[in-house]
Amino acid sequence: MKVKICGITNMESARVAVDAGADFLGFVFAESRRKISPAVAKQIADQVPTHVKKVGVFVNESPEIINEISQYVGLDFIQLHGDETPEIASSLNRPIIKAWSIQDKIDPTTFSCKYYLIDSPKGAYRGGNGIAFDWSLLQNLPIQKEKLILAGGLNAENVASAIHSVHPAIIDVSSGVETNGQKDPIKIDAFVKIAKQAFQTLKESVER
């Protein structure tokens, strides 16, 4: 029952996300308007509290480069958002988050991962397209809820519904907390607060 703010590109956005209560920060090292250099990511990561986990997002990158960047930046997780094979995943030096588009053939049994992320259909880039999808499509996926990360078109207006519909372990947002392509402190704060409250409400309802 955690929140990941992805597409962090500067210290100010990272600080706002941490102060709001985010549990994960995502740095995109693939082609994207949110792409960040390893050097800048390291400057940010070095100032992030250890309880907030740093995730590096890669798309069809070589294992050698992924491992080099993850070691240099100090990543806690590696997110594979491309067509990586299970063999590549097993050669990496951090726990893996494997991402799929909802339109992909999803077979989590082929990957040994900490989490599985399900995103919207592909757009200009592999993720962060700001498009929601039909969450009922997740009902029959063979993924344990405690390993499921939900992404794709989430924002402060729909995140509570998403949590109550899907019951994911983690909610992942990027464009849904931006204004004019930049991270918006007000939107980040609102998103995290609403998501955390929805997770708490869901937990209480399950425990009754």
Automatic annotation (TrEMBL):
EC identifiers of the protein: 5.3.1.24
* CDD domains membership: PRAI
Concerning Gene3D superfamilies, the annotation shows: Aldolase class I (3.20.20.70)
Drop me one GO molecular function for this one.
Answer: isomerase activity
Its keywords, alphabetically, are:
Amino-acid biosynthesis, Aromatic amino acid biosynthesis, Isomerase, Tryptophan biosynthesis
The UniProt entry, under InterPro entries, shows: Aldolase_TIM, PRAI_dom, RibuloseP-bd_barrel, TrpF_fam
> Could you confirm whether the keyword Amino-acid biosynthesis appears in this record?
yes
Pathway assignment reads: Amino-acid biosynthesis; L-tryptophan biosynthesis; L-tryptophan from chorismate: step 3/5
Q: Which reaction does it catalyse?
A: N-(5-phospho-beta-D-ribosyl)anthranilate = 1-(2-carboxyphenylamino)-1-deoxy-D-ribulose 5-phosphate
Top-level taxon: Bacteria
Keyword Heme among UniProt keywords: no
State one Pfam family annotation: PRAI
Q: Where is the N-(5'phosphoribosyl) anthranilate isomerase (PRAI) domain?
A: 3-193
Q: What family, per the record?
A: Belongs to the TrpF family.
What is the protein named? N-(5'-phosphoribosyl)anthranilate isomerase
